[in-house]
Structure formats: C-alpha cells, structure tokens
C-alpha cells in the first residue's frame, strides 16, 4: 500500500507492506534509527514517538495506520544545530546513561509538557511510567523535567559525609 | 595516586562535569549495533528447544535450506567448537543434547528476517525428551541426571576452579579460617537459617546483538553490543583456533550490559553462519524473549548460614554453605561462586569461618555475571541473617552489626588485614541509620501510621565488594595529541552508560592541567586501534584505567617536555606548562605551544624536532594472589568498597502491600571523581536492586519451561516504583592506590537493597522473610505464618525453592 506521512516536518511517500510497524518503517524505510526497539511488544516505551500530538509506542502502530499522520521523532527534537530545552535539561541533569531509552523518554516528556507545562513530580513519573530505563533509576530524569519547568521541588545532590 | 590531594587544589576531579556522550545520545545520532547494517547483510533466526532436557535424534534442515532467501543453515552437529570462560563446556549450538528450554538447536541466515523466520519454521527436530534436573538442590542428589556427563574431559582454569566430574558440581570453592568447632563450642547462641533468591534477568534495554563477517583468509570482523572487546576477541580466537591478528572486534554505543554482556555471546553463532554464507555479514539480534531464555541470567542461590555468638553479641564462628544454580553452563557462575566464597560474610569480622560454595549445573538457562557478581544475592542472605540473629539473641540489629563490623585491625575471611585507608563501613552504617532516624518513629511518622493504618518500619543493611578479577588484571590508556593541542584518549574499557569516560576525561584534564574541553575520550572501541583492557566488569574500571590515564598523561607531558627542552635550549627540569604551552619557569615569556609540537616541531629553518606526541600509561593490579584452594587464604581484593542502606517502609498488615518511603544509601567511594555520575550509579543500581527485591524472578513449570520470558510477566521497576525519598551520600576515605583516591562503586548500589527492605518490613510487622522477591503476597503470607516460608511461586511450578536437607553434600 502507498502511504504518505509527515515526519519531523518532512513529507514522505512510500510503498509499504501492510504488516510493517511504524517503528520498522521509520528505521528501515526512512533510516531514522534514533527510535529504538526494546521489546517490540508495547511494553517498554523505547519506541515512543509522537503521532498527531500523542505519544505512542511505534512498535504497536502499523505504518499504514500512520498514513496521513504527522509524526515527531528524536531526530526532529533538536532545534537546528542546538539542543532543545528538554534535551538540554537531560544533559544538565545527567538523565542519560546508556542512552537506549532516551529517545522514547524525551518523546514522552515532550507530550507531557505540551499538556502540563508545570507538572508535579508525580505527574512526571506518571508520564514516563511506560518508558523503562534500566540504567538511571529515573530520578535524574524526573529532576531534569522539574529543572526545566522551574519547579520549586528541591533537586537531590550527592552529599558528602 | 594523588590520593592525598586536597579538593581545593583540584580543578576537575571531584567537581561537576558533563558527560562526553550526551549530544549523540540525546539526538539519536549515537549508533548502536542494533542500528547498524552492512551491504549484503543477512539476518538470523533460531530454532530453539521446547524442552529443558532432551536428546537430539535428528535435525532435518533440508526444507529450510531450499527456501527463498536462505543463504546458510547450521546445526550443532556440524560444529565442533567449545566455548567457555573458565570451564569450556558450551557448544555454539546444542549438539547431541539440549540442556535448557530455549537453547538454540539450529540457525538460519537469510536475506530478510521474514525469510529466516519462515525457514526456521520449516526445520524439523526429532527430540527424545529426558527428565530434566531443575532445582539445584535436586541436582546434588546421588541419582540426579548429569547435565554434563563429560565434565571430566572439559578444560578449565585449574589454578582457580575445582569441578567434580561425575556430579553436577561445576566448581567447589572452600574457605577455612580458624577453628569453627571451637568457636561454636564457646558460643552462647547458635542460630542457623537458610535464605534463597531466584534467577533474574539483567534486562539491558538493548538486547544482545552482533554482526559478524567471516572474510577471506579467515579474517573476521565483529561488531557487537558487548562490554569487553578484548575478551570477545580472545575467547573467539580460542574457540576457532584463529590467530588474534585475524580478528577485529568493534563496539559502538552499547545499550546497557550490567554484566550480561561481559563475556562472549552471540558472536560465534553469527560467525559460523557468515562463513557458511560465503563471507556475507550476518546479524543476529535477540528478541526480548530470547534475552530471557537463550542468553544468560543471574544464578539462583540457596544460602545456609549457621552462626555462633557470644553472650555479648560478638560472632565467634560461622558456617556458610552456598548453593549456586549455574543453569546449563558454567560461564561466569563458577567465578561468582569463587568471589562470593571469599566475601561470604559481608563486611563483618568472623574469627572462625568455614565456607563451602558450590556451583551446580541444572537444566535451566545459564547464569553469568550480573552487577554485584553474587554479592547482591548472598548479601540478601547475610544481611537478613544478621537481622534474624540479632532478633533471636535479643539484641538490636544495628548494634549487632556495629559490634561485628570490620574495622582497622580486623582480619577478613582470606586473612587480609583491614587498615585505616581500606574504607569505613562503620561510618556508612551509622550514617545510613541516622538518615532514616533508625530505632524510632518521628511524630509525623506516628501520625501517618494512625491515619493510614499501615505500620512503618526502619531497617539498615551493610555491604562490601572487591573487584572479582584475575590477580594480574591489567589495562592501558593511550593519549594522542592532535594538531591543535587537544588530546584524544583511547582505551578499551568501554562506557556502556556507567559514565566512566566522563571521569577519565576529568582525570586526564586534571593531570595534564588542560581545559577539559580539549580532552576527548573516544567512544566506539576497536581491538585493532585501542590498547588492551581485560574486561569492563567488577567495578575495577575507574581504578585501573584511571591510574593508567594518570600515567599516560605524565608520559605525554614528559615527551612534550623533551621536545620543548630541545626547542627552548632548556633543561626539562626548568620547564613548566599551562593548558596551551610549555615554558621556561624562570623566563615565562620563552615558551613553545603544544599545538606547534603536537605532530612534530618545525624549527625556523624547516628542520624537524620530536614527532607526534603520544602518552602511554599501563597499569596492572598490584599485590594480589591466587587463593589457596583448600583454605581460601590469599589476597583477592584490589580494593574494598563498603556501604550501607537505610530504608523506611510502610506495610499494610491486612493485605501485605507496602511502600518504600525512603532509602538512604552511603558508600565509601574513596573520592567521588564526578558527583553526579556517582549519584547516577547509586540510584540506578538501587532501583535495579529494588526491582529484584520487589518483583523480578524467573518462574518455570514442572517441565522446566520458562513461564515469564517477557515484560508482561517479568516486570522491572518503572518511575512509579521510586521510593518517595531517595538520598545518596559518600564517605571519602581515600584509596591509596586509587586515582585521586577513588575506588569503584558501579555495582555496589545494587547490593543489600533487598535486605534493607526485608529488614524494614520485619521491623514493621515481625515478618521473617527469607526468600526474595518480596511481593505483596509473600509479605502477607510471612506475616500470617510468622516464620520463613517458601516462595509460593516456587512450590509448584518449580523455580527457586528451599533446599532439601538430604541433598546437602557433606563438608
Ligand atoms: S519496543 Fe515498543 S514498547 Fe518496547
Ligand atoms: S539510560 Fe540506559 S535504559 Fe535508560
């Protein structure tokens, strides 16, 4: 089937087999490798992209379902040569370790902030609940978001005894 | 090295500094092996065993081989390579017999993954199912089937390991200190309990993946998501009998490892397929299910501890028996057994000790290294035991810990003497206790109890770990100066998220006295380009490679000074430098820039001086020795990192539900080179530890089929599982031979989290839990039974359960 969709503001038109997931379409057909696969079963959130304004697990969406849709992926996040505010906050707060969950995390945070520009810590945790991160223990990710939104909640530091 | 420098004199070490890999990872530009493809690359799918143990009577691949797009099919029968880290006991594909559910029997490489999948469907395997041996305690019974009848013929590292041919025991580690019988005879109390924990998965977010191309002239190129490029190369060359110069291993960005990618994994399989397919590159990426059942996990443990205590609460004797379930292959599990054997008591002084630690083969997915290398599992036992012993003898558990904790002058199990600069576990324990207000509830907590009806309890647990590695473990770091005077750092210690490269960068900038922006640590490792490093494991990376980085920086400066001395007609002793130039100390205007010397200095007349500036640093572990196989005596520990957690938990006694209100984790890290990275490791490991404490674990049915190889049934913690409050702090007793006094802490954060939780739950409810994970239903049952209970999941079906007394081997 022929599909046409917008990804990060660019229009793509491709032939696509019906059973191909949006995740594989992005990676294999469009060469956008930033979005990762952690399970392929809709459980881990590594493949999160934004489709028509909503964060979705792209491994659970068929590419043909995205016909006509507008998609945002991690490749479209930086603003020109410089990182976006979310990316800079992640950087400042050491919210990345191996980086495999990062693309999905950033997408979930992006959706959250579009809806709640000033989320509480609980709202942040809620928003990224579907994104597994095995490395960071989440704290520095939550802090990155709160730091970005100027939340008064105190950020933790390594203390010296 | 430089362990005594004051923080005031340090520019980068101990200060905030960013990570060098952020930009790539945050923009999606970082390339993982998962993201790579090569021209003509083939894709692999595997035929896997539905049985835990079966004889393979025949494999018919004729249909599969003829299917469209199929370029190579291999079966175990046609391969004769044994692979193994310490005991060489594994084939690339099962041969003759399958030894665990999910083991690969045949493999297909095809042009597309769909074609490979279809071909695998068409492979027919004729099995004769055999009765599996599933529980490691059953495997010790005299009539138990042997998982490896040929154990006696396998090669292994004889100086370190002791397999028992004719049994399922892959290794027996012994330790004997003092006179335990006398110690027990002098004891007022003797308490004996048994503890256990199941196998768990590392769950790196990027599953195991490799691309291998077996080129002409047997030149092999490997791209792999692995922790240790040189170990992959070495074991690969041994397995295939290839010279090391034929094989090149490259490791780009890696999506997590946690020990699961420490050794060799799926590379040999891709290699034989590539060779058979005429040298086309072949890629295999494990599915999440395969990550659980085909690739290794963490061993289950049953740990029996008998402790003799004086009337004053001093431990006089301890008898410890560990039964490690290695699964179908020994891999790292034998070394986990060894390392756990010599550390078995935790950070406490045991004057008279008797330890037997067994690695036991069973028909289950095999065990390997996992963050903590056995210490998470046995500290669960030791730190629950300290709590239960204290309770049994009527002493406060914190006071009991402090009374027995290692202090300067104490002697460890292997005979090593603790000194002032070894580290301070007492301070860690006291600080953890202080931070959770151990021993009583605050007014606010009392009010909360009233309001919720849930009981609040506070627990403390301590921990220790030394790197588990060969006594002569070595590494090297090479610094290369670029034309503009900036510096490239090459090392084969990998950074798969831990942040070691950020710290190495700080160390190099510090020692060179260069602005940190001028230092680049090269990600993407390559055995053809990087200097040797043994493995990225054991929390030894920062210590060994940090020292090598200091020495490399000094070498680079020495070489630069030699050129500058010639150019400036000065004695090298009279030279000094800043971030851009070398100059004469007493005539600072006379100098020469690093940039002008970086690739060779040109005199005004055009003739050259020096050459490209390079610094080399080599470092090898000092003063360690093999352990005596009979007594366990020797010096295994490069450094001990001590720590402790304090935990506050609230429990609903009606339902068994609980919530972690606070955890405070304290480690004696020697010196925190990068505080934010230490904190990242501390919290990341703590959450991993909490995951195994609250919910993770393998569950099998009676036939040995893994029932939960997915995130649906094997949960890992999410952001919502975070304790309400998380605190991390460091004690800094400098490690004399650590870089700027630092010692490792990457694994330690995972250790003893479960025990702290168990202790806090016990304080709240009196429940004596001895098996983890502690799911709500386990807590509920423990509260009702008021005695340690078996884990309900493990009664039936089979998982990890308590030992059967008659199966215990005699010591
Ligand atoms: S890869 Fe899509 S949710 Fe895991
Ligand atoms: S940073 Fe590794 S999984 Fe999140």
What does this structure look like?
- The complex is a heterodimer of chains A (161) and B (811).
- Chain A is an alpha+beta fold.
- Chain A has two domains: 75 residues, Beta-grasp domain (Ubiquitin-like (UB roll)); 65 residues, Orthogonal Bundle (DNA polymerase, domain 1), CATH 1.10.150.120.
- Chain A contains five helices and six strands.
- Chain B is α+β, with helices and mostly antiparallel strands and 811 residues long.
- Chain B has three domains: 178 residues, Aldehyde Oxidoreductase, domain 3 (Alpha-Beta Complex); 329 residues, 2-Layer Sandwich (Aldehyde Oxidoreductase, domain 4); 148 residues, Aldehyde Oxidoreductase, domain 4 (2-Layer Sandwich), CATH 3.30.365.10.
- Chain B has 19 helices and 31 strands.
- In chain B, strands 3-7-1-14-11-12-13-22 form an eight-stranded mixed β-sheet.
- In chain B, α9 runs parallel beside α17.
- The longest helix of chain B is centred in the C-terminal third of the chain and has 28 residues.
- β6 of chain A pairs parallel with β31 of chain B, so a sheet runs across the interface.
- The site of one FE2/S2 (inorganic) cluster has 12 residues of chain A, from loops.
Summarize the structure.
By secondary structure, chain A is α+β, with helices and mostly antiparallel strands.
